[in-house]
Amino acid sequence: MARPDIAAFFDPRTWSVQYVVNDPKTRACAIIDPVLDFDEKSGAIATANADRLLDFVRDQNLDLQWILDTHPHADHFSAAAYLKAKTGAPTAIGTHIVKVQKLWADIYNWQELKTDGSQWDRLFDRGDTFRIGNLEAGVMFSPGHTLASITYLVGDAAFVHDTVFMPDSGTARADFPGGSANALWASIRDIIALPDDTRVFVGHDYQPGGREPRWESTVARQKADNIHLTRYGCESEFVAFREGRDRTLPMPKLILHALQVNINGGRLPEPEENGRRYLKLPIDALQGAAWS
C-alpha cells in the first residue's frame, strides 16, 4: 500500500491537528482540516495557522491539489475559503453537508443560506475516490459526531478527525445537533475493520495528564488500547456510556460562532453597511447542554 508523507500542525488554542499529506514521487499534496484563527474575546480573526501550512507547502516545493475538511467543525473556523483564495486549489467535504446546512440554517434562521453544498468545489460521497498526485484517495462515510463526517483514506493513512482520538483519550462526543452514538459506533467499527497497520490520524488531541500532543496511532493500537473501545465492547454498552458522558459535557465554546462560518465553506459573514462583519448567536438554541 502506498505510504504518503504526512506533516502535522498542532494548534494548542483549539487542540486541533491540521495535516499536509503529499505524494513523495510527484510532490502533489492536500491540506486536511485547516484552522482559521479566531479570538472569541475580541472577535479578532487571524491567519497564522493557515499561513503556516502555506509556508510549509512553499518551502517543501509541494503542489497543492486539494483543501479538504472532514466535517463542519464545532470548535474552530475552517480556513478552506482563505486557502482557496490564496492558492486556487479546490475545496471538498462530505456530501451530507447539505443536511447539516439545512439543520443549522433553521437554528440560525438563515433563510439566505444556500443549502446545496455549492460553497465547496466537490462533495464526496461514500466510496468516492480522487487522486493526490499518484496516490489514490478514498472516502468513508463516518457519521455520529456529525451528520456529515467522513474519513479520508490516502494510501496507508486514515484521517478520522472526530471519530476516535488517541487511544488514551477514547472516542468523540455524539450529542451535537444531528449526532448519534449509534451511528458513531458503526463508524468506529468500519474504521477498525481496516488493516491493522493502517495509520490513524486524529483531528484533536486534548493531552490527557498534560502529556505532549500526539496524533498518530494505528488500527491495531486502537483495537488493543483505546480506553473506550476496550471497556465497552458491544454497541449497547458503548451507546449507554457515550450518551451518559455526553450529558455531562459543556458545548464547545465556539460552536455557535463556528458553525455559521463552516456550513458556508469557511466564509465569514459579508460586511454590513458600516464595513464590519457580524456573527449571529441564537439564544437557547442548544438547551440541555451542561454548563462549564
UniProtKB/TrEMBL annotation:
One MF annotation (Gene Ontology) recorded for this entry: metal ion binding
Residue intervals of the Metallo-beta-lactamase domain: 15-204
InterPro entries linked: Metallo-B-lactamas, Mito_Persulfide_Diox, POD-like_MBL-fold, RibonucZ/Hydroxyglut_hydro
GO biological process, one term: hydrogen sulfide metabolic process
Any one Pfam family match given in the protein's UniProt record, by short name: Lactamase_B
Domain of life: Bacteria
Keywords per UniProt: Metal-binding
Keyword check for Membrane: no
Keyword Disulfide bond annotated: no
PANTHER family attached to this UniProt entry: PERSULFIDE DIOXYGENASE ETHE1, PERSULFIDE DIOXYGENASE ETHE1, MITOCHONDRIAL
Annotated protein name in UniProt: Beta-lactamase
